[in-house]
Design a protein that fits this description.
Layout (H helix, E strand, L loop, with lengths): L1 H5 L6 E8 L5 H16 L3 E4 L2 E6 L2 H12 L7 E8 H5 L3 E3 L2 E3 L12
Length: 113
Amino acid sequence: MKRREHLSPYRIMWLFVMFDLPVGTKKERKQAMDFRNSLLDLGFEMSQFSIYLKYCASGEKAESVGSRIQHRLPPGGKVDILTITDKQFANMKRFYAKDRIKNDGKVDQLHLF
């Protein structure tokens, strides 16, 4: 029973990171690229240019990843972090051009228990 609770779509979380970063100077553009790369290093995938998302096995893991992002924010940058359940994520409607992307809730990442 405990294993079933661990895989509950109400316990599994998706972490969305939405950000605006200054890119007016060469230094700011490098910092913005470094920030994006750090999100990729943390296992995020790009949903839109300034929106990245990551599957997290629990709220605690999402909280831990969120605090790591805060320390990587470049000066002058603005970041919003949104956490939703896997159940909520499964209900999200996603479109590319005019075609709907099927949101089957499957994760491309490997999750080890």
